[in-house]
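Spend some time on this chain, tokens included, and walk me through the fold:

. . .
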Amino acid sequence: MVLLFTVIAVLAGVAVLYVLSAARVVKQYERGVVFRLGRLAEPVRQPGFTMVIPFVDHLHKVNMQIVTLPVPAQEGITRDNVTVRVDAVVYFKVVDAANALVRVEDYRFAVSQMAQTSLRSIIGKSDLDDLLSNREKLNQGLELMIDSPAVGWGVQIDRVEIKDVSLPDTMKRSMARQAEADRERRARIINADAEYQASKKLADAARQMEEQPAALQLRLLQTMVAVAAEKNSTLVLPFPVELLRFLERAQLDPAAGGTRAAPPHGDGVASPAPAAGPRGDSR
């Protein structure tokens, strides 16, 4: 009887050890790939509790999360013969756990090397202006170049971004001078256009004041108010030229009560009028 209980206890212990050695837990973001005696055992184990055969099956867990892979800075010469250093970042994830283990030795290293070679190829095919201003198109082209071979590895490229473009110091100085010259050119054009528009407005105002002389007097009064508001000790009062012309016309016009100047004599000197003497007594 004691021997029977001993055998049962031994068998129970062996069963417990077998269950403990065969039990596996696959996390939610993982997939389990089982190799049974070196051969791939289908299907891929889903998240949760799973059992394997001890000493026969080997379970490999593959992370299915999106991986952020920085690409080291690559130095190259653009199509317009400018030496630049460009670095990028690749976002990818495993979509087929079995192929990620069977088709490629190290899918992370493979994606990294493919990203570096593709980045150097993109640098050689692009101009400097494209690298600086048209990055969205370059990102799409770089993503396509990396994703094409990665499909067979069970890897999907989610996104590729060019992080930074480093330029030589001489090129930075040249671009700074070019940008400064362009800003100065735009400033001169804007200033000239403002002067042109202001001259047109002043011409319109002059024509309006010519048609309405009272407008000039009102403008003169407004100028006086503006100058007086500054609390200056000296008041500058402009004298309109039209007023001088009006006085001149009034002086030369007899109907306005003015007197004409006497015509000069032959010697160019006006003779004085004879003075009237006292009236004598006629007898």
About this structure: The first strand starts at residue 23 and ends at 26. Residues 169-211 form the longest helix (43 residues). Confidence is low (pLDDT under 50) at residues 258-283.
